[in-house]
Write a structure and sequence with these properties.
279 residues; Rossmann fold; eight-stranded mixed beta sheet; 10 helices; 37% helix; 17% strand; disordered N terminus
Length: 279
């Protein structure tokens, strides 16, 4: 296991993809097929997958990258869903992979990107973990959109008693050990606090997203996973995604919330591996 974000077993480089600088990382067996491509959530980064990468890099070719706006990648003022889809095309081209050779593994917003990509391109397999069914704009989102950053950045996106309490309740199961939450905070608190204010407003570019009208068009074999205590992308969303996807399997992971990647990594890894072997 890798306890620090910087200890991932990957070779990383900054590369220009469609006119924007993205951090691209690769590890594992270059000849192994299919390749596994990991798409983090919002506002996530490559290291969110540290327990998956430390496991799968030993067995498969793995690709992970900081999506535009996040991690060490460039952070433009405006983004669109089409940007993220074409970025993925560019990343696969950089690694000389076709969509048919990859399993896309997306968490949260990364699931949104992955499932939309699977609608438009033919891929080998799809794994959705706490994926987004539709975008729900919260009151907090609206306040961040209209208020000056000086009023909310320090309160909401630095480590303080309020964020510790809110993050713990929102992103983790009440049954998750305190040590797991504290590890996640150590890995991410500095990164989150340094994100430019405009990145926290990216939600407005996805506020009309709703996958329900077209999810049934996705025919690729799909694994749908969600934490039983997920409050961000609730199990009811994954249940509906599973119902709409004609070739899918649903796994609900007990005693886990939205950060199931940290909370139950062994279960997540086992289910992904079983799925990949079934393709």
């Amino acid at each position: 296991m890798f306890s620090k974000a910087g200890e991932l077993p990957m070779k990383c480089k900054m590369r220009n993809v469609r006119g924007i600088s993205l951090k691209l990382c690769e590890c594992g067996k270059t000849e192994a097929k299919p390749a596994l491509v990991f798409l983090h959530g919002m506002p996530g980064q490559i290291s969110n997958w540290k327990y998956q990468l430390s496991y799968f890099c030993q067995k498969y070719r793995c690709i992970a990258y900081d999506q535009r706006g996040y991690g060490e990648s460039e952070k433009p003022l405006r983004v669109s869903l089409e940007d993220y889809l074409k970025d993925l095309d560019g990343v696969l081209k950089h690694f000389e992979l076709s969509p048919e050779e990859v399993v896309l593994i997306g968490h949260s917003f990364g699931g949104l990107v992955a499932q939309t990509y699977a609608k438009e391109r033919r891929i080998k397999g799809l794994v959705l973990i706490g994926s987004v069914l539709k975008w729900e704009v919260t009151l907090l989102d609206r306040l961040i959109a209209v208020l000056p950053p000086v009023l909310w950045r320090r309160v909401l996106f630095t480590k303080n008693p309020l964020t510790v309490r809110v993050y713990r309740d929102m992103f983790f199961s009440p049954k998750t050990p305190k040590e797991v939450f504290e590890e996640f905070m150590r890995d991410n608190e500095r990164y989150i606090s340094r994100l430019p204010a405009h990145v926290h407003r990216y939600w407005k570019f996805f506020s009309d997203y709703d996958a329900r009208p077209w999810l049934s068009d996705i025919k690729v074999k799909t694994l749908v996973m969600v934490g039983a205590d997920d409050k961000v992308t609730p199990p009811s969303w994954s249940e509906e995604i599973h119902r709409l996807l004609p070739n899918s399997k649903l796994v609900v992971i007990e005693e886990a919330g939205h950060l199931v990647l940290y909370e139950k990594p062994e279960v997540v890894n086992r289910k992904i591996e079983e799925f990949v072997k079934s393709l």
